[in-house]
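Changelog-adjacent note: as of this version, every example in the card shows the full chain rather than a window. The one below runs 331 residues end to end.
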Amino acid sequence: MKACVLGAGAWGSALAIVLADNGHEVVMWDRSPGVVEPVNAHHVAPRLQGLELPKTISASLDLGQALAGAKIVVSAVPSSALGSVVMAAGPLVPSDAILVSATKGLESETQARPTEAWRSAAPSLSSRLVAISGPNFAIEIARRLPAATVVASKDQESRVAAQGAFMTPYLRVYTHWDVAGVELGGALKNIVAIACGIVEGMGLGYNAQAAIISRGIAEVTRLGVALGADPLTFAGLSGVGDLVLTSTGHLSRNRQAGIAIGRGESIESFIARTGYTVEGAATVKGAMKLSSDLGISMPITEVVYKVLYLGLPPRQGLSLIMSRDRRSEHE
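Full-length structure tokens:
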């Protein structure tokens, strides 16, 4: 079958490789000629360390051409571009295709989850929406190292179809019905990863990082449940699994950003210097608004927000967390 991947970044390119390995003809769409041309001319992924791509993968600047006839559409665009992409692509998605969202963030204007953004732009997609998320570094998936991930949909047929599309000898795919939990776990863990990086950048040891991870999953779960997710989802691959990987793995851009901030660099300087997409830096704004609207306590998220955008010194932020009122962990 033909598959279309929207966004030829590292994650989109990695998922294109998985689909190609399963026999699909894959067309990646991207706005940048500097990305599309090397894919077609040399079969390499510019945003994936120039890794060689299967010959069955091509790329296009033409959104309509890329989507035409696709049975599987994968949305792997950054959350900052999600709003514009869903408006442009939503009406063009074939009526018999499933749409798999691989964006790990919240829509910047509305704080909507990615599948919610797609549903709003194209209501006809409602029964064919799937979210994919898990502890997956793109470069390791692209190099076909063993991994596991989750595909979630309210529609059983759609999630089983997505499972079949991505299951390979090196990628084990589990199904789930809890779309909200899977998407929120993938988005909110990036904030905790930044916090872990800040702690590491300040040289405060592994105990502090373990505490951030443990209490981080607690506040991620609190907000997730308030937004309709099953708390058990956050104990799985798309929750604690992804959070641990992103908070501790050296390939994590969110963790790298945190390390730089812990050493005194601003988030703006880090992004300008590296060119990285740091999803947690955008997601923390939406998480702050959601937690405020719902009255959910998220102290780690609040401190990360204040450090990134209100000039709070990281050590002062740590003091705020450590000096909070005594309480039971069961709370």
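Structural remarks: Residues 213 and 244 are 7 Å apart (CA to CA).
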